[in-house]
Design a protein that fits this description.
The chain has 393 residues and is an all-alpha fold. It is built from 18 helices and no strands. Helix 7 packs across helix 8 and helix 9 runs antiparallel to helix 10. The termini are far apart.
Length: 393
């Protein structure tokens, strides 16, 4: 309510000049009563009334030139109008403005705002997904989309002034230090450099996280298949195992890690973990506007499935994936070493414990009690059953 009141106050205060970019994103928020109508229609109206004569939105400090900020604002405004299917003439003029000035995007001599090389290509992709067509060559569009991939592949330690905020700096510094520290230790054990492979997997995970963020921002409801293909990577649970598997006493080659058997182990474990999370957090995540496989399954069923029925379907999928994972772990003719496969199995068992009742993150007291029991209570040994001797522990 405070945010809504603040936005309304800003819009009603004529002496404050609204940011075209921020106004566009506010304009995309759907109404709480209908997804087919904007929550802030006055923002949509502001966009329609404030397009510049050249087809752009935004104010440039240097009136004689076009900046990357203006391209970003113009694209955001065009997407907002397209979302509500209004302002066809403004959309056309905006797209042609972007098309005429597309070379600016790749011009390194022009000041580039923080995050532009990630945000602008992502918005171009979003615009294409909702049916907008740019009056430029496909090769130019492809080059801009590659700009995002190139930016995500950068892993050098950045300059002090390269961070968008202090929070981003803390997160990146911690991740950068941890990946390189563990990579150096693992490389020494494996007698080769394994850091770069880990960096590449983090980059892949972050690209998928960004895709989820783009879906959420655009209020896009992907199919369950789209969601799972992306989320089994974005959950990055396998990245927790990467350092551990290199310290098992086995030589883990790049061939093994890139083999289809390893990828299937990773996919099954990640699917199990993500679906377990979704079944336990569907109400909280749906209320927060986050994507969830249970909610998507119910949504795309056309009213055929309730949330409770969708949860049963997802639970069945979890059981099937668990059986397939165990079969892979027990298989004899295997490229991946048994100790490495058992690591996947143990992580799977941990996930079932973590999501036994709710989820561990929102049940801190229960988690603390379990951890205290692990360290402080004596182990209760059970007599082994010979028939289960081949099953991983």
């Amino acid at each position: 309510m405070e945010r809504e009141a603040r936005i309304r106050k800003n819009l009603q205060t004529p002496e404050l000049l609204p940011s075209s970019y921020e106004t566009a994103w506010v304009a995309m928020v759907p109404s709480s009563t209908s997804l087919q109508a904007p929550y802030f229609p006055q923002c949509v109206e502001w966009i329609m009334q404030n397009q510049q004569d050249n087809g752009s939105w935004g104010i440039n400090e240097f009136a004689s030139s076009v900046s990357k900020d203006i391209l970003l604002s113009t694209l955001a405004c065009v997407i907002a109008l397209k979302k509500w299917n209004v302002g066809l003439e403004q959309i056309w003029r905006g797209l042609h403005f972007i098309g005429r000035n597309m070379p600016i995007v790749m011009d390194e001599q022009i000041t580039t705002p923080n995050g532009f090389n990630l945000i602008f290509p992502s918005m171009i992709r979003l615009a294409i997904q909702i049916g907008l067509e740019f009056p430029v060559r496909q090769a130019d569009v492809d080059e801009i989309l590659r700009l995002r991939e190139m930016e995500l592949k950068r892993w050098d330690e950045p300059r002090e002034d390269a961070f968008h905020s202090e929070q981003v700096k803390i997160l990146y510094t911690a991740l950068y230090s941890t990946v390189n520290h563990l990579g150096a230790k693992a490389s020494a054990v494996q007698n080769r450099d394994v850091t770069q492979l880990r960096v590449e997997m983090w980059q892949k995970g972050m690209r998928c996280m960004m895709t989820e963020s783009e879906w959420q921002r655009a209020k896009y409801a992907p199919t369950v298949e789209e969601y799972m293909a992306n989320s089994t990577v974005s959950i990055v649970v396998d990245l927790m195992l990467i350092p551990a598997k290199y310290f098992l006493g086995e030589m883990i080659s790049d061939y093994m890690v890139k083999h289809e058997e390893y990828n299937e182990l990773r996919r099954l474990m990640s699917t199990i973990c993500h679906l377990l999370n979704d079944t336990r957090t569907v109400e909280r995540e749906s209320a927060a506007g986050k994507l969830n496989s249970v909610a998507l399954l119910a949504l795309h069923s056309g009213g055929f499935l309730s949330i409770e029925e969708a949860q049963k379907v997802v639970n069945k999928s979890i059981a099937e994936c668990r059986r397939e994972l165990l079969q892979l772990v027990l298989r004899e003719d295997s490229v991946v070493p048994r100790s490495c496969k058992e690591l996947f199995w143990k992580h799977c068992k941990t996930a079932f414990w973590f999501y036994f009742q709710a989820d561990g993150l929102t049940s801190p007291k229960e988690m603390v009690a379990e951890v205290n029991a692990l360290f402080n209570e004596p182990l209760k040994l059970q007599t082994s059953n010979p028939s289960l001797s081949n099953q991983p522990k």
